[in-house]
């Protein structure tokens, strides 16, 4: 799959140290570095058990709010695309 086909999708990216970042995919470059907007950092479970590592500000996905982040392509272990939620509206006036 071409990375550009995921542009503007919500991605969750896991990096080599076990952290994951989730946000809106807005840009990539020839080194496959990825820019996420409205990103949050999701810590691995062993760090969440440490009270000093817990995020002060929790975002919509439950992680530490980061804003705009750049993730180096060489540090990426896994990329997961979040499927958009489709809301189906029921209408009474349709026969």
From TrEMBL:
Annotated coiled-coil positions are: none
List the InterPro entries: LSM_dom_sf, LSMD1_Sm, Sm_dom_euk/arc, snRNP_SmB/NAA38-like
Matching CDD domains: LSMD1
- Which Gene3D superfamilies does the record match to this protein? 2.30.30.100
Q: Which domain of life is it from?
A: Eukaryota
UniProt-recorded name of the protein? Sm domain-containing protein
List the PANTHER family. N-ALPHA-ACETYLTRANSFERASE 38, NATC AUXILIARY SUBUNIT, SMALL NUCLEAR RIBONUCLEOPROTEIN-ASSOCIATED PROTEIN B AND N
Task: Give every Sm domain span.
Answer: 1-81
Its Gene Ontology cellular component terms are:
NatC complex
Q: Which SMART domains match?
A: Sm
